[in-house]
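Anyone opening a protein record will find just a pair of labelled lines. The record below illustrates this layout.
***
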Amino acid sequence: MTKVQFFGSGLSGFREKTLPGRLIVLEGTDGVGRSTQIGLLKNWLESSGFAVLDTGLTRSLLAGRGLKKAKEGHTLGAKTMDLFYATDLADRLENQMIPALRAGFVVLTDRYVYSLMARAIVRGASADWIQSVYGFALKPDAVFYLKIDLPNLIPRVLTSTGFDYWESGMDFLPGDDMYDCFVQYQTRLLATFDQLARQYAFDTVDATQTVNKVFSVLQRKIRKALPKSAPLVDAPRIFVTPLDHAAAEEADIEGRREEFAAAATQASGLGAKSTKGKAPDRQANNAREA
């Protein structure tokens, strides 16, 4: 049973004192293995009889697609991006996560307010301001911080996705060398995570261990936050369960204009066309150099 506590004033009009489900957060920087562990934990929990909703950043039906498009170009300021991420979380919390918790689901979230706070603080936002922005957010039942140091992180990133424009902090750091920016950004980000871990009493897990070892540690810790047996789930009370993320994106706010698009298509006799936004020139150049 999740005791309803918010970081601040909470969601407007919310009156419930408890929710039957559990809200469990995995935190840590990019490349630390959060997504892998979310997948393993979801399979384990479902095989144990628990209904699970997994979610993460930019999966909001209202703001997710717009946020991704905003990151394809470099057109928005840091504070605007902070508020865009807050909108994404607020929509997912109200329309996905709380309904799932109300129905008895275990909600696994790949990053939560803490990552968003850390990113904002590193980019110059006031800690007090960004924490007040997330006053609407529900406090989780457990937060597991997958901690890693830079020497162990760099080889993982190089052998997986490679350096990323945003995860290298190239949107605000001086210089054009993606590796140097990555080292600067991640050094600051990891230090901020460590500070938040102390402030919010994260349960820290050594992410330099093997995938199976980390999974085993998380299993043992998460069992303590779960009921002894899986509860009966009131599935009809789930308003939105976007387990298919691609389908969820298609149901985004822009996709709600289907009637207008159909009318326009009928009038013109032309099929709808879509184009992708271009990544920042700086990102493309550095990606080629890398």
Q: What stands out?
A: The chain has one domain: 2-289. The chain is about 45% helix and 10% strand.
